[in-house]
Amino acid sequence: MNASRKTRVVLSAIAIIVGVLLVAPTLVVIPMGFTDKRSLTFPPSGWSLRWYEEFFSNPEWIGSLGNSIAIAIAVTVLAVVLGTLAAVALVRSRVPASGAINLLALAPLVVPIVVVGVGVYAMFLQWRLVGTFFGFVVAHTVLAVPYVVITVSASLRTMDWGLLRAASSLGAGPWRAFRRVTLPQIAGGVAAGALFAFITSFDETVVSLFLASSELRTLPVQMYGSVTRDTDPTIATASSLILVITTGLLLATLLRRKKHA
Amino acid sequence: MPDNGSRLVLKDVGMDYRGVPALRDVNLDVEPGEFVTLLGPSGSGKTTTLNLIAGFFEPTYGDISIDGVSVTKLPPHRRNIGMVFQNYSLFPHLDVADNVAFPLVERRVSRAEREERVAAALDMVGLSGYGHRRPNELSGGQQQRVAIARALIYQPRLVLFDEPLGALDRKLRESLQSELRRIHRELGVTMLFVTHDQEEALALSDRIVVFDQGRIVQVGTTAELYRRPATPFVASFVGDSNLIRGHVVRSGDGFALDSPLGRIPLPVTADGRAEATVLVRPEHVKLRSERAGLALELQAEVEDVAFLGPFTLVTCRTEAGERIKMRSPAGEGETLLPGDRVDLGWESRHVLLLDDADTVAAPLSTTAIPKP
Lengths: 261, 372
Fold this sequence. Notes:
Largest sheet of chain A: none
Helix content of chain B: 10-25%
CATH class of chain A: Mainly Alpha
Mean pLDDT of chain B: 87
Oligomer: heterodimer
Number of helices of chain B: 8
Distance between the termini of chain A: 34 Å
């Protein structure tokens, strides 16, 4: 009893330390965004909202945030549709060489991202897609689809396929059965995939650096540019915003799922 | 009887599964409004047949027609057949009312009419007021009632049941059986029911189709199957039986069977057969001390006596080691004890010569108790 309590205390302490190490670098940026100085310092010597003002009034910053959100939404829609269809095909039907196709669908997860960036850049230059909204959406979708395939496949594997037989005996054709039975059954997996897709696109940096032009930048690209040019605390503000948006989405999804369960 | 049921005809239907024949030469003609049970052990082809009729599988050869129209090439959702599954297959994301309304939505029935018909269907299965429950809040029996309501609400003229009561306990099974019979009487639809439970088959059906090893071995009414089983398999599967195998010999101007139990006179001709199996139902086995004029004399030792209310089941073992079951009406046989020596016998007319189609698979006897 005593020994087990001791181990529990030690384990909790380790868990807390690891947690702090993981989160601390991220949390440091929040106070830095509220500094009153022109440079990045921690802890800030005084407080102000001027960098938030700067962020929301400077068209470069607010514009890149808008681009990021618009691209991420388009990517989410595209990746969810493609990823879900791919998952259904891979799990449900007897597609020839489904193992190889599955690996191919998941490849973007393991290919070094900078290599993807170079490859995409080379081809998109030829196709005149560099610096275009469509180019960003296509490149980010490639990176986001694997997450959707993984989450949707997982929920498809736990689904009772007898329900589809029941649906067809009751008069539902394949498409109607998919909409009225399969989709509600895998909704959790689709939602999780959508979230991952959105976040993947929203904070994608490497490929975006290749694709960005002076007219079209996403927020991470703008931040990187800002660091290399003038290192003003707006970047801390932008980081805080990314943090709030991504964790906010994640928490909203988790809470919704908890309520449903 | 109103004309609510379909005529179902299977003509020379067969199916190969991965190159191996799973079902062969199934011919079946189900009358409108009939209640027919497909009976057989697992792997005998009964469920395959049901799935072929539902359209989940396509036959390798043969034709399936409903009311004279071939449905062999139709997908399941175009066949308008009701189906009830063993594991209920209710949609967990919909409440009971939406589950039952599912087929009506597919048929574009208006909301008002849907609500009316759902209420009537739930009432028919005794679940009025359960519309807003989720399937996982119901017991197994209630879930299967919902599934039955869902399969009947669009008034299909043919309803298939795939071992629907298999997961329920005995008491619930019996009450759902009588409810199914009532619904069948009221609606007059054709019902096809798959089970491996012979008691269930006897309790429900107008006719029973017995399957074994991918073929139909016999089709008949309950009484026909019991009184004149075609093969040892049917004899052992429907009701309790003593099956005795032996060589056919000439005896006087008739035939007899030389068996481990001795020479058994046959009541019919067995010309041209070297070996044969005969059936003697346990209720036809008698104690010689209580009946005169028995055709056979058989010494045996009582092994077990089971008092079963209206009758007593006595299991005996002969000197040759063969088991013989005797079912005596109340009053006879009750006083026997294990170890008692008895003289058994039966009348010749109760010896039934069986076709030899499946002697290899047939056990000597089964333990289930038949419905009288």
